[in-house]
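Async update (no meeting this week)

Hi team, since we skipped the sync, here's where things stand on the single-chain job. The sequence we agreed to prioritize is pasted below, unchanged from the tracker. I ran it this morning and attached the output directly underneath so nobody has to dig for it. Comments welcome in thread, and please keep replies under the output.
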Amino acid sequence: MHPHQSHDSYQLKMTMKSQSLLREAFHQTVAGGSAGVWLSSKGLVEICLMHPLDVVKTRFQIQRGQGDATSYRSLGHCFKTMFHQEGILGFYKGILPPILAETPKRAVKFLTFEQYKKILSYASLPSGVIFTVAGLGSGLTEGVVVNPFEVVKVSLQAQRNSFSEQPSTFAYAHEIIRSQGFGLRGLNKGLTATLGRHGVFNMIYFGFYFNVKSIIPVNEDPAMEFLRKLGIGLLSGTIASCVNIPFDVAKSRIQGPQPKSGVIKYKTCINTIRTIYREEGFFALYKGLLPKIMRLGPGGAVMLLVYEYSFAWLQENF
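Output:
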């Protein structure tokens, strides 16, 4: 074979391989983004149903014990008190940051999961380990992307004034940057806790879902197959929420208002968890668990299904 022909053939193969990888990455990004878009805007689930649960979860996580007369005694008491004191719009405080972050963070979640999974496959590890470690990696990456949005969201959710009295999301973000900067005391405070929350959640979420799905036989009936995946996804989101919530509580304490103005009590993730455990007991690390499960159990199941079906459709049609 002529040397030029060999070189041209090699270049053609590399070009085709690059195009294939780019097409696959495009499918993963669009499918992941579709899951986020469906949950946050098109489906109106996040806006109309899920976000009030997130606000309530944050309120429980930042309150320190029952000694304060303003403490919420139960989920019902919290909803009732917020409605009377802050109105219906009080349940939508901090809604803009998650709307802005939802689509890119889901795209990052699924794209990086697939890439980490591909890289780990070269190590000849068991599939169960690959899914779990790839989930951990995707969660850590997602945590870096979403943390600044979380700082603004939690700060707005913690305020008990009326919705109309709150500064806008962009004004509040600008104030945080102006007074505290972009670093770990400013727009990226609570980063280690966010990494723990997302890393642990995705590790269990993906690891459990794909491992259990491979064990339970596929059903030939499309409706039953959908229910099989939905059930596994629901269980995945619920278990992951239960395991990672201490990191979530620590994140809310670090990013929310400190007990004394001007004094930073909650600084790092592990020290915050230790402090909460020492001062308030073990169960304080599980504050806000019920609204968290109510939000992320069904939401996590739907997100995985939207991703899987979107990805399969893109592969068939593009």
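Quick observations from my side:
Residues 31-43 have pLDDT under 50 and may be disordered.
The radius of gyration is 22 Å.
Reply here if anything looks off.
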